[in-house]
Amino acid sequence: MFSYYLELALRSLKRSPGLTALMVLAIGFGVAASMTTWSVFRAVSGDPIPWKSAQLFVPQIDNWGPNGRSSDGEPPNAMDYADAMALMRDHRAKRQSAMYQISPSVVPAEAGKHPMNVSGHAVYGEFFPMLDVPFKYGSGWSASDDESRALVAVISSKLNQKLFGGAASVGRSVNIEGKDYRVVGVLDDWNPQPRFYDVVNSGGFSVNGDDVFLPFLTAIQADLPNDGNTNCNAVPKESGFVGLQRSECVWIAYMAELDAGAVAAYRDYLDGYARDQQRAGRFAWAPNGRLRDLRAWLDNQHVVPSDTKVSLLVALGLLLVCLVNTVGLLLAKFLRRSSEIGVRRALGAPRAAIYAQFITEAGIVGLAGGVLGLLLTGVGVASVGWVLPKDIAALARLDVSLLLLTLLVAVIATVLAGLYPTFRASRVQPAWQLKSN
Amino acid sequence: MDILPILATLRRHKVILWLLMLEIALSCAIICNGVFLIAQRLQHMDIPSGVAEHELVQIQQAPIVPPPDRYARAQEDLAMLRQIPGVRAVGMSNQVPFGGSSSNGNVMLSPTQPHPTLSAAEYFGENLVQTLGLHLIAGRTLRTDEYVDADVVIRALADGSSEGFPMPMLVSQALAVRLWPQQNPLGKLIWLAPTASFRVVGVVETLARANAYNTATAQYSMIIPLHMGADKDQSYLLRTRPEDRPRVLAAAVAALKRADPARVIMHSRSFDQIRSDYFQDDQAMAGMLVSVIVAVLLVTGLGIVGLASFWVAQRRKQIGIRRALGATRIDILHYFQTENFLIVTFGIVIGMLLAYGLSLWLMMHYELPHLPGIYFPVGALALWIIGQLAVLGPALRAAAVPPVVATRSV
Known about the structure:
The structure holds 2 protein chains of 2 kinds. Chain A is of the alpha+beta class.
């Protein structure tokens, strides 16, 4: 029976090629436009580490007091050196790492090659297992390396390619800011977007991933200055990087891994820490700390540009216009065929058969529109790079789930759009319709 | 043209009529809000920088091995850059308008103020007024003998001593008007720290901040006469004729590398490049919105073509009868055009309400300003035009129906 409906549908569509093309175009276009924007939206709002984001937390400590808070009472969005070090020393979370952005120069061993400036982070050894960072060769460093301020480094596969031609370089040495560091690990392709571990400094997104990771205390000892933002509520008493470390300026990002049961205890610990500081006379205010999980933190830091949300809305509006359009066109098409329905009903076709036939026809239009939409979405996502900044466009990828969703949205939308006209068409009284002819 | 018969006919096609009106209303809402969003982007991208944009190039470099004396190195570099043929002025700054990475200070109008009055950009560096091409509208520019090494000031601040203060400074006009409305800003004092006071000696017309996100505060800038050492946060700025920029930039980079091969050039770009980098998001967003609006108009147009064709086909016999009874082709053409105009107008009325609601909702959720009334006619006009264009084809086809159709049975 289905093949019969299929044949009927194709024949009917062939009879009015202009209208059919119009419907298919409208659907394809609407689906493509909204899906393209959606893929951009998903790329920028996507959870960078979905399997673990509920266990990763960003603590904030209010070391500035009421005068330094933003209008909504938020404490600073980074930590000063003293607090970050105290939290690392107490080591209350399952894993944790303080980090700051560095931008050291790396001097290639080969003579004649120019030194290059690479970006990276100074982190603790727990950073790598905490964030499930993938390694191509070797691994991160140990807690004792952190303590002993060992000269070890983890480099990206890109930097490994540049320095060692992609060889397994674990154990080789690399000259960073005039000092030799031993490579202990080479990362696999790892460039999470948004760069969730330090959104304050990267604005969330960054095309180039970090190329080098050094132990936090080693970097401090080597005097590698902070390359990220520094925010101060007062002028540091001493100049230079050491002055920064002794100031209340905030410049350090912090992340902790907590199991579900340990969150409340960690919150208490942060409160207790702030209260201790209050008792010691450093803070003259009640604790005003925060502990947000990763998703809440990304949202709080407005990592997803609000532009993208608005354009998603506009694109959804476009999809809606296309669907309304298709409903109208399908209605026009089906209502024109009341005589045909009259004949079929008079010859004994039940309403269900009429429904089946017309839904098949609507489904074909939807499928064709969906396939066209799919192709156009491909073109759209590929050309996003022309309109959007590189760093966001690089993330907008056409993936399988998006493709399936595109197809599904198109077919469901048209079948729904076809239901009302079908309802109208199958209500037509056969006798009346035959008589008027 | 008689409207009543058209309305009577439309009443018999309620569902299609409503769908068409709904489609037009949605399009209207999208277009009004979209055009407004685009206008906002364009307005934001139009923020004046106050500098001679087409004559400036920026070089940011970082020494790998810190020079023994950063201040001496900076002066050597500046002297060397001044020698490059075609260079009209050379300066140095810790930030440039729209450069992205910024340095800001909290401005207080008295040393004991508990909360700062506002935050403004702090430009430190040499020869900025001349190099940037700033327009001095009051007072005087900074004198060479007023410059102090940055370290000296930092040390004084750390010791809490007010020696050497108040220092002279320049402010932008926007900042002066905000701090001292209706008053002469010259000679006024501000504090950037309880011990650090500054006296306004001159006012420049415009100088945008490095991170000019907020249009209201984008022009709050101060220029303070500090010698900055040659380090990675400082930029050398060169002013030259527009056509000399690529050559001067290349020559300057080469000269800097020659003077110290162990240094890394982090940025070398023209100011035009800086501006387009800074506003690329806005440009992208505007482009995206334009394409969505064009798409909406296109789809709506196609929908009108389709439904009008359907109506024409359905009414062939009636048209034939009207023609047989004496209606001219023009009458038939006008009938369909008027019908379209009426439907689009109904749709626009609904669309305006929808646009207003949508703008209220956007305002609540995305901190967007209110949709001004000026954008409503824009949406209406666009839809009237697209409606008339779309209906023209089917209407001409209707006008071509011969009167003889009336005599045929089907």
